[in-house]
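To the team - calcium ion complex, inputs and output below.
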Amino acid sequence: MDMKKYLIPVSGLAVIACGTGTVDKPNVIYVFPDQFRNQSLGFWSEEEYENHVGWQADPVRTPNLDRFADESLVMSKAVSTCPLSSPYRGMFLTGMYPERSGVTLNCMALRPESTLNPDAVCISDVFSANGYSCGYIGKLHAETPMKNDPARPGHYVSDRNPEWDAYTPPERRHGFSYWYSYGTFDVHKNPHYWDTDGVRHDPHEYSVKHETDKAIEFLRNENGERDPEAPFFLALAYNPPHSPYESLDDCMEEDYALYQDMDYSELYVRPNADTTLSKAPSARYYFANVTGVDREFGRLLDEVKRLGLDRNTIIVFTSDHGETMCSQGTLDPKNSIYTESFNVPFIIRYPGKIRHRVDSTLLSTTDIMPTVLALAGLGDKIPETAEGRNLAPVILENGEDCDIPDAALYIRNLDGPADKNGIVHGIFPEARGIKTDRYTMEISITRDRELARVLIFDDWNDPYQMHCLSFSEHPELFSSLCGILDRKLEEADDIWHREQILRHLTLGKAE
Ligand code: CA
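Output:
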């Protein structure tokens, strides 16, 4: 480890926080709680914002995010291309679709093939190679668990069977020189982390607060977390408002108090929600964690300002995917094209550079890496392996040419066949779909590759997606959407394109 060099004051100067990040090389803070749906942002109820979406915001209290939005570009139609924890993280880090990032399924010991390709060029590799100090705090969940517990060599990090949590050794950290992270672990008030040197910490407090404290230490450079002469890139990955959301063990009491007396008619504003589902009581705890994330994010923003870093720091607030929360009759919070799962917050602030407004560009997960690098002035360093678009010209409105997407691709993979030991091999590419400005379409298949279902929604006239349009009754629309999907699949060099799955289905069934 070369952390030692950061612990020695340079030229007799004390290690202080200020002075890093310039106009040419701004700092970047990327905050992404897990399972935070776009609908759970209070400002969507405000007059300025509500006309940009056709739906009503959840009854959540998010005063800090509301203020942040007022100073930021708010993207109303950002989507999580493959709305699951691990595939999202692989795409965010590499700018590649899951088949190339390596992370095709949620990482756990029975799916060893799904893991971040150690040779992939990550956003942090590029920042690091261009003089940035990079830090990662919170949930990673982009690697298969390995028997590499620093405290018990030759063992997984716990005795859970199968193992989900993971330790990431220094050689697999992709340019992140400061580390305070874990794989995946869902006890919000008893989290744990492995630090840069592989030492485990069990702080016994609300993870969102603890991780914000660590992020503030990083900003202040309290313990030599970063090179004080260099700009920094900090990724902060909160786990809440991810499940569990069943009791006061899962959130802070002060946040729960805001929602405890609300009945279902107040909590569930979406007409597509079924409050007879067993999950219905979860909304109060989910919204409590939304407010908990908001409070801690506000504390982070305050510290950025106090340190004088706000003018030269790009800050993004987003999420890995949404949460259905009883909408569409499903208990699965994610991994579906329904807007509650697919649509994510994407709010980006860069004072003096990005104008405050709401923008409806269809931002996909693969676009994030090239776009963020370009916003930081590293547009010529975007690796050729990145498959997404650089949408910085749209965000900066700088008049540069930009290939604006007319649709966003949706990917749903399930486990491929398992061997006699339960080890999963490959993927079953169950569904592909697209979102255009107006429509959402998903086509799913059976394991025999027969057509299983076609979903088509007119999001302009049916924002809650309650009326599926029949493809046989709307042949021209279906044909047009299939044409766009076919092109997106080819662009992504997706398995559906390579194995001609769509062509076989639609040509056969639509005639
Ligand atoms: Ca997740």
